[in-house]
Amino acid sequence: MTTTDSNPASVEVDPSGRFAGTGTRGTRILGSMTVVAMVWLVAFGLGFSPADRDQDEAVRIMYVHVPTIWVAYMSFVVTAVASGFYLFGRSKALGWDRLAGASAEIGTIFVAATLVVGSLWGRLTWGVFWQWDARLTTTALLFVTYIGYLAVRRLGGSHQQRARRSAVVGLLAVLLIPLVHWSVRLWRSLHQEATVLDTDGDIDMDGLMLFSLFVGVVAFTLFYIWLVLHRTRVMAMEDMMDDRGLDLALASRRAEVVPTQKLEEN
Amino acid sequence: MEDAGFIIGSYVLTFVMVIGMSWGVVRRGRRLGAQIPDEDKYWT
Questions:
Q1: Least trusted range by pLDDT, from A115-124, A128-137, A199-208
Q2: Burial, A25: exposed, middle or buried (Cβ in 10 Å; 0-12, 13-18, 19+)?
């Protein structure tokens, strides 16, 4: 038998591999659907969709750029909702906290992807990778805020303390999303306004372009659901290992105390 | 063509991120899963 972790809570790994990971039949089906949707996204995004009148071929970046920020927004809203359920619910179930944490991790990585891919798109359309424009700056602020949220989750304390602390931050941080979304209207911005979710309700986009964008949103949403399921399960196991480590430490401490007491009695 | 490099690069970066995240989470799940009995896992 071998160990795979330096964590004191680690126990011997089951060499037969009998113990399951985080996959289930449901996640495997979801994973397969995600792969198919991603293949469709590449086919439509890079192949079938037409070039844009103004942006020419550069518009193809939109099919990954918009879905990544969509997933980031959705992740942070899920974090806030789960934080609310934890904070104001009666059960104080840690499952809500894990959902909030998993979702925030995914959202943060997706914001990073949005910023990087957006800078490539910016280079093609504006001629620069970065501008301290309202949309770009507020998106960078959103990224830094959720890095802070993840840092708060790593502060010491019990699982319940972690959950309470991070739930408050999760509920406050989500207030940035409307600011990011409406920044293009609130301030003069290089960044274009929303094409699909415009206030007047008109969708000014070619049908095949809209379909390609829809495929991208579906693909990344499926991926988000698949990943958040796996990540919450990993977090549950990490919490179990933490608890086990604490139990072992307590048992070890008690074992140290008992012989000392016996010596004193003798 | 310069545009093609940026366009394909944006797709490559996005998919590298997607695959990297998936691989990391599934791998961690397998490692921890091997140390915890199935009866303790609510999803099994």
A1: A199-208
A2: exposed
A152 touches chain B (CB under 8 A): no
Cβ-Cβ contacts under 8 Å, B19 against chain A: none
Q: What is the pLDDT of residues A19-61, one digit of tens each?
A: 678 888 999 999 999 999 999 999 999 999 888 888 888 899 9
User: Distance between CA atoms of A179 and A183, rounded to whole angstroms?
Assistant: 6
Which residues of chain B does A38 touch, with a Cβ-Cβ cutoff of 8 Å? 15, 18
Tell me the shortest Cα–Cα distance from B1 to chain A, in angstroms. 11
Q: Do A121 and B44 touch (CB under 8 A)?
A: no
With an 8 Å Cβ cutoff, are B30 and A21 in contact? yes
C-alpha–C-alpha distance, residues A248 and A241, integer Å: 10
Angle subtended at Cα A181 by Cα A220 and Cα A73, rounded to the nearest 5 degrees: 30
Q: Which of A254, A104, A73, A108 is nearest to A178 (CA)?
A: A73
Helix (H) or strand (E) holding A59: none
ipTM entry: 0.94
How distant, in Å, are the alpha carbons of A83, A161, A164, A199, B26 from that of A92? 10, 11, 9, 38, 27
Dihedral in degrees, nearest 10, Cα atoms A53, A58, A62, A63 = 100
Please answer yes or no on whether A240 and B40 come within 8 Å at the CB atom: yes
Q: Which residue has the tokens 């708060």?
A: A152
Yes or no, beta carbons of B6 and A123 under 8 Å apart = yes
